[in-house]
Amino acid sequence: MVGNDIxxxxxxxxxxxxxxxxxxxxxxxxxxxxxxxxxxNPFIMVWRLWSMKEAAYKLYTQxxxxxxxxxxxxxxxxxxxxxxxxxxxxxxxxxxxFTSEYILSEARLLDFKMTSKVIEFxxxxxxxxxxxxxxxxxxxxxTYQVSVDDLKIEKSEFGIPTVVFNTEKFQVSxxxxxxxxxxxxxxxxx
Length: 190
Prior knowledge:
- By secondary structure, the chain is of the alpha+beta class.
- It folds into 2 domains: about 1-110, CATH 3.90.470.20; about 115-190, CATH 3.90.470.20.
- The chain is built from 5 helices and 10 strands.
- The chain has helices at about 10-15, 20-25, 30-40, 40-65, 130-145, and strands at about 1-10, 75-80, 80-85, 90-100, 100-110, 115-120, 150-155, 160-165, 170-175, 180-190.
- The strands form 2 sheets. A 5-stranded antiparallel beta sheet has the order 1-5-4-3-2. Strands 6-10-9-8-7 form a 5-stranded antiparallel beta sheet, with helices on one face.
- The model has no long low-confidence stretch (mean pLDDT about 90).
C-alpha cells in the first residue's frame, strides 16, 4: 500500500493564503503550527506537512476504506527527509523530496522498493489527472512489456486505485497540482 502527494510551489504561492490563522488552525495540530512558525521557511514547512498528511491519508484509506476530512488528526513527525504520520492507531513512514518547483511526499507502511515518477505538464490544463494516469499506464507498459490496451485502472467504491492486468493488481497512488503530476507504484496484490 502506498500514498503520495505533490505540491506545485508556484501554484501554492499564487492560490493559497496559508498565513491566515484559521487556515493553520483548521489543518495543523499545535505542535505542527510550532514547527511552521519556528521554521526558516514557514511556507515550505506548511506545504511539506500538508503533502505528508495527504500521502498518509491516501495510505490510511487503503487500509480503512472510507472518505472523511480530518487533516488536523494526521500528525506529522520528521527528521530530515524521513518522517512519519500518525492518525489514531495508524502510523506510516514518509519520505519527502524537495525541489525549487515542488514538494513530493510518499507514504508507506514498510520500506519496500517503489516506482515513482514526477511529470511536468506541458501547459496548464484541466486534464492533469488524465495525463498522470496515462503516464502511469505507459510506464507499466514499458516495465512489463504489455500493451497499454491490456492495462486498466480500477477504483474501489472509495476511489482507491489499482492497475490491473491479467490477474495481477498493483497498488498505485497519483497526485497532481498546478504544473506537476506524480505517481507511485507499490506491491503486487494477488
